From TrEMBL:
The lineage of its organism: Eukaryota, Sar, Alveolata, Dinophyceae, Suessiales. Transmembrane segments: none annotated. The keyword Ligase does not apply. This is cGMP-dependent protein kinase. One of its GO terms (cellular component) is cAMP-dependent protein kinase complex. The keyword Magnesium does not apply.
Length: 509
């Protein structure tokens, strides 16, 4: 038995038959679209080979006993990123796509079962029934901290509850240490529970005093959506009725727009804004107001398998009402196309503007645009919507130069973790590459990548080949050379990627 990176459970022998591989055999070919298998190396060594244009194929690394390869193409439905060739005689375990997905699901359940053991030790959670504890366990996020790192500060708004599972922390109040908390197998050390009752300010600072520490964390909104308010939990015993049946659903925008007020036949065409393989975007007018009418070819949607993306885009945008997100006003169903009537952004794409005006490296512009993205994400996350597709091409500008987030095709409502690998490889967070489940926090990672790109003119982990991008991401941002003005901002966002709260004050010059 062996362990696969990103999976906590050993791979079962039944769905993983052994296969002997002769030296020189290529199990995976770069660019191959038929990605049906994942491999775990039992013995021997494989070379990782990447084509480099005129330079030809080059060996960039190797995989030996206990290593694995092929998972990214299975998860991402993308071409193979490199050629994998046996350096000598090897033995591998072979897992097909179906069993690979089942193993991921089993791993998630097994990890949640381990988390339940910690929940069992938390006194305020004793009234929970078994199925409620499992639901809560699946929403927990494991966070890692280094020595002297502050988990939260006295006076800041409380929004998350923590269970200490490794290490030791100091509790400091008004500049004085009042106690220490240490992880223990016998008794749970937890803190921040008042955040589950209200958003009142933290009454102490928590700082790591061991070499490292780990916590399990859940925010108030996730807790309430799964179990209901904590005060209700306190009033019932273990025999009380489960709250799972009445779990809260994310609400639509409080200022929901009424659909059906603008008919397609009443729109007057003003001009063409753009076109692509999906269809065209026209500038239209109605009642003195202008809109962008986006036409999506039904044939293109079917051919590209984008049905779910289009539904996501509609459903998510209906929920949103933010000045930093493109608004959806109407949808229409035509004979050959679907139509979205959208808020126009006549300033064009942010990426095109940066290239045309040479704005890369200008920190004032970067802070202004990133602050807009932060506002957009705060709005989405308040509704438990994860975006997952941030890149300069998905940021539009109004005629006044204000930022607007667009393209909700990969967005979805999430409580806890989700496991679909999607987005742009340059912007992948480590947990997405590890296929261990990701949360809203991946959006903050992408904000860090965007900030770097706006300052440096290229992404921090840039490479012509996805496999090399993933390797660089896994090495961490410590290996990245930051533009001087960019480092502090991106490192602040790395901290927020671990589920801290970011306010606009961090973006002030």
């Amino acid at each position: 038995m062996a362990k696969c990176k990103g999976l906590e459970q050993p791979i079962p022998a039944a769905p993983a038959p052994e296969e002997e591989v002769k030296a020189g055999t290529q199990l995976i070919t770069e660019g191959d679209l038929n990605a049906d298998y994942f491999y775990v190396v039992q013995s021997g060594t494989f070379n990782i080979i990447i084509s480099r244009g005129e330079e030809g194929p080059q060996t960039v690394g190797s995989i030996s006993e206990g290593g694995s390869f092929g998972e990214l193409a299975l998860l991402y439905f993308a071409p193979r990123a490199a050629t994998i060739q046996a350096k000598d005689a090897c033995v591998v375990w072979v897992i097909d796509r179906k069993n690979f997905k089942e193993i991921l699901a089993q791993s998630s359940t097994a990890m949640a079962s381990e988390y339940v053991k910690y929940l069992d030790k938390v006194e305020i959670l004793q009234p929970l029934q078994d199925e409620e504890k499992m639901a809560l366990a699946k929403a927990l996020t494991e966070m890692s901290f280094s020595k002297n790192e502050v988990i939260f500060q006295q006076g800041e708004k409380g929004d998350a509850f923590y269970i200490l599972i490794e290490g030791q922390v100091s509790v400091v109040k008004d500049g004085r240490e009042v106690t220490k908390l240490a992880a223990s197998p016998e008794k749970a050390s937890f803190f921040g529970e008042k955040a589950l009752l209200s958003h009142e300010p933290r009454n102490a600072t928590l700082q790591v005093i061991s070499d490292s520490a780990k916590t399990l964390t859940v925010d108030k909104m996730s807790f309430d959506m799964i179990l209901g308010p904590l005060e209700e939990l306190r009033t019932r015993g273990k025999q009380g009725k489960s709250k799972l049946e009445g779990r809260a659903k994310p609400a639509a925008s409080s200022s929901s727009r009424k659909f059906g007020l603008i008919t397609r036949k009443d729109l007057r065409r003003v001009g063409l804004l753009g076109c692509g393989g999906f269809g065209a975007v026209e500038l239209v007018e109605h009642g003195g107001d202008t809109y962008a009418l986006k036409a999506l070819s039904k044939g293109y949607i079917m051919k590209s398998g984008m049905q779910q993306n289009v539904l996501n885009e509609k459903n998510v945008q209906i929920m949103c009402d933010s000045p930093f997100i493109i608004k959806l006003y109407e949808t229409y169903n035509g004979t050959q196309s679907l139509y979205f009537l959208l808020e126009p952004a006549l300033g064009g794409e942010l990426y095109a503007t940066y290239n045309k005006k040479g704005l890369f490296g200008k920190d004032g512009h970067a802070k202004f645009y990133v602050a807009g993205v932060v506002n957009a994400f705060q709005h989405l996350h308040s509704k438990k919507i994860i975006f997952r597709d941030l890149k300069p091409e998905n940021l539009l500008l109004t005629e006044l130069g204000h930022i607007k987030l667009t393209d909700m095709g990969l967005a979805k409502v999430v409580v806890g973790k989700t496991y679909t690998t999607c987005g742009t490889p340059d912007y992948f967070a480590p947990e997405m590459i590890a296929s261990a489940g990701h949360t809203l926090a991946v959006d903050w990672w992408t904000v860090g990548v965007l900030t770097f790109e706006l300052m440096a003119g290229h992404p921090p982990f840039e490479s012509a080949h996805p496999m090399q991008i993933y390797q660089k991401v896994n090495k961490g941002i410590g290996k990245v050379n930051f533009p001087p003005k960019c480092k502090g901002v991106v490192e602040d966002l790395r901290t927020h990627h671990q589920l801290r709260e970011v306010g606009l004050d961090q973006w002030n010059a």
